[in-house]
Amino acid sequence: YLSTTHVPALRWQSIWYTDGSCNSAYNLRVESRIGAAAVHPATNTTLMIKFEVDPSLNTINTAELSAIQVALEHSSGDIVIATDSMVSIYLIRRALYSPYSIFLRQH
Asked: What's the CA gap between 54 and 71, in Å, rounded?
């Protein structure tokens, strides 16, 4: 679609893709492992996140939210976060609009 009168509302240069993953340990002798990354195609940037946290905090929410945090920290100006984590969006919204509702939560 090429139009000379329509201006796209979303600039692709501002998009960061984020994702996190958690390999839950079903064997109590093995720790859960998490991984996450933020990708900015416009600058060919991929940021892999190394986690150095208490293994009890190794959750999918930790991974997903960390990827979003890294994208925000490494961007300037307007930014669009593309994530598959509705829970992360929900938690960020709660933190902004009713922070008392998540006080002392693990994630």
From this structure: 23
